[in-house]
């Protein structure tokens, strides 16, 4: 009695229980009893066998609360599929156990109450029901038997119909999944699930990615079927993945099924709209009605949905009010008629597009627009009338005027050519490109002093319907005189006469010299160049009137005269040009005689000696008188007025020659005194 369950009365030897006994712990107790008499060292011993009689105080107990059995669905009815076993610590009938099925999902099973053998009562099919759960109760045969609540223990037996691997896994998860493109690595994208009606390993499914994951964007847990991201996604690079997923069971041979799982990467507004060009260049014609198409700008946003839906606008800036942009299409049209001459180039820096994402993203581009010219302006001369003066001594080909006409149009429409209309008498031509007017021949003011003609400025437009436009410009070319003509006397030799004895300032003759030049170059001044000794004459420098300056004396025999009665003057006609030109003329002035001088003998007396023997008719002498007058006034007649009473002599009245008419006789008359008169 190591546990001290019993006590013994040392005097009377009565064995009593000291502790509660448990039949199930020890059903037989063998006590060794020793007896001793007094203090005698002698003792004796005996064994007392104590049987602990069972009391039904223990319910039957299953060794496990649940169990699992697999059977093939081909087993026939009556087949034992399971043996239930419970233990009861009691003994005898208290430990005898009866088995029963207290609840079952089907009538496919029965149990032997004594043996606990579970048998099939009919054929079962895994396709109908894979598992059956039987609650088996064990009850002892004690009296009274323990109730189920107290002593009845139950066993949950799960009977699994052992399947032949004749079913493929079938996917139960959807073949479509969505994931945001900004999902972090490891984000759960999809839970792939498949079911296999088979049991056991035949129904154990694992998952694998066969294709579509070449860039290893996803990881699939083959056991759980959880598909997660293995790297950051970018919808703009790839917006859809088609993964061929396989579900395979663990049967032998294994059966599998595949599913194409489409993973759509949902857009996040992480892309900025981008214009196809940063600079759009285009042209538009001027003078078109508002609404004229200009250009269509286009931007792309790699996002999707509202994140990629773009709205266009022109931001405020210089000239933007002349254009309107369709917010949906990006088409730009004019809002007003454009005038190239007012503004040829529009540089609009604020073409903006923004998406409808939240928050919105936007970008800008520049529009460079050139207004095309239309021939809507005439060439205009700086002046419509020109009056110019040119020197007549210009060389042929000299420029006299550079005309300039401007045309506000552009290109050929604004390129100006020049031409002349009206007759220039072959004197002028114009350079069609430069507008320079040049002489084409030597000018002569004295021939033509003024030219009036018109110049035409034309543009070079070749576009219809507008025709080439022209502008006229009137030109008057006045030829400035050059002193290239000498004054010319009407005659190179003048003959004039004047009576002697006239008072000073008596007009003799008026000479005329003409100078084809004009102005000072044509103003003639007269003077006496030579022959006017003693300032006998004077000439009016302006009118050319030659007059006496002193009283003339026909009989004056000064050495300057060719003849006693004439004066030879050289007159000079000079213009006032620079340098001055001149010419001369000769004037022969005859001083007309007035009979104011008597004939005068060279000597008042003549002494002639002759021989008395000279024959009659001989020339004795010749008397001569001189009369300073001229003409008839100077014609002298000679006559013997005395001393020739007897007629010895004869006097020629014209020549003054004296001839002997009678024979002389010295002894008769030795001296004759003849008085001869010159008349």
From TrEMBL:
SMART domains xrefs: CA (SM00112)
Every Cadherin domain range: 6-62, 63-171, 179-275, 276-381, 382-489, 490-601, 602-679
SUPFAM superfamilies with a match to the protein in the record: Cadherin-like
GO CC annotations on file: cell-cell junction; plasma membrane
Gene Ontology MF terms: calcium ion binding
GO biological process, one term: tissue morphogenesis
Signal sequence interval, chain numbering: none
Gene3D superfamilies: Cadherins
Keyword Disulfide bond: yes
Superkingdom field: Eukaryota
Subcellular location: Membrane
Coiled-coil region(s): none
Keywords assigned by UniProt, alphabetized: Calcium, Cell adhesion, Disulfide bond, EGF-like domain, Glycoprotein, Membrane, Repeat, Signal, Transmembrane, Transmembrane helix
Principal subcellular localization: membrane
InterPro entries: Cadherin-domain_protein, Cadherin-like_dom, Cadherin-like_sf, Cadherin_CS
Classification of source organism: Eukaryota, Metazoa, Chordata, Craniata, Vertebrata
Protein name per UniProt: PCD23 protein
Originating species: Steatornis caripensis
């Amino acid at each position: 009695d190591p546990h001290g369950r019993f006590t013994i009365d040392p005097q009377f030897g009565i064995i009593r229980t000291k502790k509660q006994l448990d039949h199930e712990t020890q059903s037989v107790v063998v006590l060794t009893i020793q007896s001793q008499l007094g203090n005698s060292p002698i003792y004796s011993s005996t064994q007392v066998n104590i049987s602990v009689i069972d009391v039904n105080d223990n319910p039957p107990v299953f060794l496990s609360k649940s169990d699992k059995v697999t059977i093939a669905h081909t087993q026939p009815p009556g087949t034992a599929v399971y043996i239930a076993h419970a233990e009861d610590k009691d003994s005898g009938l208290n430990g005898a156990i009866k088995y029963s099925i207290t609840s079952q999902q089907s009538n496919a099973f029965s149990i032997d109450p004594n043996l606990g053998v579970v048998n099939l009562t009919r054929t079962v099919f895994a396709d109908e029901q894979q598992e059956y759960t039987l609650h088996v109760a064990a009850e002892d045969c004690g009296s009274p038997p323990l109730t189920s609540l107290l002593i009845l223990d139950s066993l949950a037996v799960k009977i699994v119909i052992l399947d032949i691997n004749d079913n493929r896994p079938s996917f139960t998860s959807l073949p479509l999944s969505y994931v945001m493109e900004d999902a972090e690595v490891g984000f759960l994208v999809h839970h792939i699930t498949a079911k296999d009606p088979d049991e056991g390993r035949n129904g154990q499914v694992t998952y694998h990615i066969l294709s579509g994951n070449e860039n290893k964007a996803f990881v699939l847990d083959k056991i759980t079927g959880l598909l997660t991201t293995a790297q950051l996604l970018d919808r703009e690079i790839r917006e859809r993945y088609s993964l061929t997923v396989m579900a395979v069971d663990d049967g032998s041979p294994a059966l599998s099924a595949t599913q194409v799982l489409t993973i759509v990467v949902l857009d996040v507004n992480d892309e900025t709209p981008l214009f196809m060009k940063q600079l759009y260049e285009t042209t538009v014609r001027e003078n078109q009605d508002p609404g004229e198409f200009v250009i269509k700008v286009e931007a792309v946003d790699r996002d999707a949905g509202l994140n990629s839906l773009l709205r266009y606008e022109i931001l405020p800036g210089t000239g933007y009010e002349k254009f309107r942009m369709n917010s949906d299409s990006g088409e730009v049209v004019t809002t007003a008629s454009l005038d190239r001459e007012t503004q040829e180039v529009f540089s609009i820096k604020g073409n903006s597009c923004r998406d409808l994402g939240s928050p919105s993203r936007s970008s800008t581009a520049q529009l460079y627009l050139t207004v095309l010219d239309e021939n809507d302006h005439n060439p205009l001369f700086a002046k419509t009338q020109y009056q110019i003066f040119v020197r007549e001594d210009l060389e042929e080909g000299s420029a006299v005027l550079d005309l300039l006409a401007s045309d506000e149009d552009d290109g050929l429409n604004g390129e100006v050519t020049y031409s002349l209309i009206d007759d220039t008498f072959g004197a002028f031509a114009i350079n069609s490109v430069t507008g320079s007017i040049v002489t084409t021949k030597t000018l002569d003011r004295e021939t033509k002093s003024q030219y009036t003609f018109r110049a035409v400025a034309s543009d070079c437009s070749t576009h219809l319907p507008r025709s080439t436009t022209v502008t006229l410009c009137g030109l008057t070319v006045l030829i400035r005189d050059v002193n290239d003509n000498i004054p010319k006397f009407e005659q190179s030799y003048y003959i004039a006469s004047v009576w002697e004895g006239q008072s000073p300032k008596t007009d003799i003759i008026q000479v005329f010299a003409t100078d084809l030049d004009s102005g000072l170059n044509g103003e003639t001044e007269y003077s006496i160049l030579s022959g006017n000794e003693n300032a006998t004459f004077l000439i009016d420098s302006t009118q050319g009137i030659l007059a006496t300056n002193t009283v003339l004396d026909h009989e004056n025999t000064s050495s300057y005269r060719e003849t006693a009665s004439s004066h030879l003057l050289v007159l000079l006609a000079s213009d006032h040009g620079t340098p001055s030109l001149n010419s001369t003329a000769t004037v022969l002035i005859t001083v007309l005689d007035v009979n104011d001088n008597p004939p005068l003998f060279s000597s008042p007396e003549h002494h002639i000696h002759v021989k008395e023997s000279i024959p009659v008719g001989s020339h004795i002498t010749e008397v001569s008188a001189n009369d300073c007058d001229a003409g008839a006034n100077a014609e002298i007649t000679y006559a013997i007025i005395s001393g020739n009473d007897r007629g010895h002599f004869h006097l020629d009245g014209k020549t003054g020659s004296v001839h002997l008419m009678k024979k002389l006789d010295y002894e008769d008359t030795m001296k004759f005194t003849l008085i001869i008169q010159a008349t």
